[in-house]
Structure formats: C-alpha cells, structure tokens
Request: fold
Amino acid sequence: MKTDATKNSQEDQRNKAEKAFGKLMVFDLNQAVKEKKSLFIDHFLTVLELLDTGKNLENFAKVFDATRNTIDKLPNKEAVCFAGCSHCCNFIINISSFEAAHLAQSIKETKSLEEIELILDQAAKKHETTKKMDIFERNQYREFCPLLVDHKCSVYESRPFACQGHSSTNLDVCISKSNLEEPKEKSLSTYMKALSPLVIDAYSEAMSSTFSEEQTDEFLEDGYMTIEAALVKFLPIDEPLNHWLGELKQSSFDSK
Ligand code: SF4
Reply:
C-alpha cells in the first residue's frame, strides 16, 4: 500500500511534468502531438524515476531506450520519409553527450576499422569547418553527415533523437530547406511533426528536475555538440560510454 508521502511525491512529479509539458505547448504543435500529452507525461515520470534511483550507465541507457520508445509511439501517419531520402541529413545535427558516446560505442561495435577511419576522417573535415561557425552560420550551412552512405543512414538503429524525430509531412519543404531556398510553408507543424525538440526538451527537463540548476547549466551547455564534433571526440576512445560516465562523475554532479 502506498504511504501518503509516496502518493504526495508522485503527485508532485506528475504536476511538475504537466507544468513542463505546458511550457512546451507554446509552440505551434500539431493536433496529433497535443493528443499525445499523456504519453509525454508518462515519459517524464519514467525518466525522473529512473534517474532518481541512480545516475549510472545502466539507468542512462534505460532513459535512452525509454526516449526512443516514446518517439516511436508518436503519431507519424502522415510522414513522407522513406529509405534513400536524405534531405535532412545535410542540416546541422546537435546531439547530447550521452547520445554521442552511445553512437560512438555502437559504431565501434558494428563497423570495421577501415569504416571507422573513413567516418572519422570525414567527421574531422566537417568539424574543422563547423566548429568556427556561430549558430546562425551553422543553420545556413549544408554538408552531408559523415554517417550517410548511398543516401542511407549507416547507423539507423542508433541514430540520434534529432534524426529519429525528423518525421516530415511535406517533402517539398524538406527539399527547399535542404537547398536553402525560402520554404513554401513556414509553419513548424507543417514542415515536420517537430517531434525531436519536444522529446529532447522533455529529456532536458527531466535532467533539470534531477540535477541542481547550476549543474544542469554546466551539463547542457557543454553537453550538446554537432554530430561531427561528437564523432571526433568519442570515436578515438576505446570505451566511449565508460569514458562519458567518467567525465560525468568528475564534473560537479552528485553521483547518488
Ligand atoms: S545520423 Fe543518420 S539520420 Fe542522422 S544525419 Fe547522419 S546519416 Fe542522417
């Protein structure tokens, strides 16, 4: 039987999640996403519960899987994406440090040394250019991702949330955006289901509910990077995930 204290704390968490979702709703999200509100609330609660029992690799991996599952459950019936369509793979992709370590680990476990060297080489070249750019210049920069092979993602199962959430409803708009032409449709909800920012925000909100404000600022500012920067940083490391966890422990985070 649940004690009053447990019930109150669960209610607090749910209220916190409702409030956080409310903040995200200021964006012009499509109706289908609004209807999925309960899915996001449940996601928040799962993440909070997992991180509250310990900030270890196992729990972060569970948070990662839970977030992937949440994105998979989102409505995408109108999606026009198909294998071989890669218009969004020349945008700048920002990923969290955990995703970066997870991606590098998966590449090291599944690809040959020659393939890894090629990826690293292409990532380093792109990183040389993009690392000097500010956010506005990056938004206007187009160069294909080092992980794209024959217009298909070579790491599809481990692709970052930003890629998983690119579920477009309008191919013409993707083509215009890819070619840096003025989009015919300016509405975010028309361009795409805009799912990944929502889930990444949910993830960030969960982090900020768990860590102190100061620690979260430190983590989020340093924790997001372009996909090419991520590959350059983590691919040369033997055990990327363990390395990431080591960095987290050395930072000012508490490691309960
Ligand atoms: S990781 Fe895959 S889906 Fe994402 S930009 Fe690169 S090639 Fe495209």
